[in-house]
Amino acid sequence: TWEKLGKPSKFSLVELGPGKGTLIHDVIRVTKKYSCFFSSMDIHLVEIGPILQKIQKEKLKGLDINWHTDVDNLPEQPTIFLANEFFDALPIDQFVYRDGQWYENRVTKQDDGVSFQCVALKSRKKESWVSVLATQTTNGKLFNGAVVEICSTGVEILKKLEKKIHNNKGAALIIDYGYVYPGYKSTLQSIKQHKYTNFLENIGNSDITALVNFQALKDSLKHVDCETLTQREFLYLFGIKERTQALMKSASDEQKNRIFSEFLRLTENMGTLFKAMLLIV
């Protein structure tokens, strides 16, 4: 991508939601081998959580990295965005169609905690918005119990990335759990210590996510080219098979088993559930 951009002398590499800093740490480790590329790269991490920022700064100490809480103040220069399991953690609105009427599932705060409520929509603006989207995505054939999830925050952030890429040149790679064709059912889930939990319990201590609607994200774009692949297709396209074979040549039997198991996990087990969206001018 950097070469296709004309090898700019300065560009921004931006990761959204870097977690514990593992991905960007690996990117730095690998790209240091390519001095011309590495010296032209300004690294920016977008992270709103102070605790995660502290973890990232500890892991990446000694490196010249800039932290932000949003994408609005990034430098006006060519930019490559990375977002790995970022969009699935954003808040959603969830709607249910029953007997010709739309209802909204809401989490309501109460004195002794929170509860899940299903209420009829009262906002004309919101009801119109949901009806139009749902009618489009189901070809007008709505059915009782159909669930539509809308991540307006995700669309808003993606459009900001699009604006940056369109104005300054660049690209974005988004990898996440998600779908292109919705199943019209709830995808909201909560996981704690690798086990599914009730998302109304242990709030703040569980990983709450919803599958990303990649088609809705794509439909929001107007000024950049966009393609969505399964993770399996993406990894094969960029040479995971050849890379795996190269690593196994000099590996011990134990290492070969571990490398091949990881190859299968990424291309088979997670290969279709995860999607990769590519944006470029």
UniProtKB/TrEMBL annotation:
Q: One biological-process term from Gene Ontology?
A: methylation
Tell me which SUPFAM superfamilies the record gives: S-adenosyl-L-methionine-dependent methyltransferases
A GO molecular function term, named singly, is: protein-arginine omega-N symmetric methyltransferase activity
Give the record's keywords alphabetically: Methyltransferase, Transferase
Keyword Transferase assigned: yes
Q: Which InterPro entries match?
A: NDUFAF7, NDUFAF7_sf, SAM-dependent_MTases_sf
One Pfam family, short name please? Methyltransf_28
Gene3D superfamilies from the entry? 3.40.50.12710
Name it: SAM-dependent methyltransferase
Q: Which organism is the protein's source?
A: Wolbachia pipientis
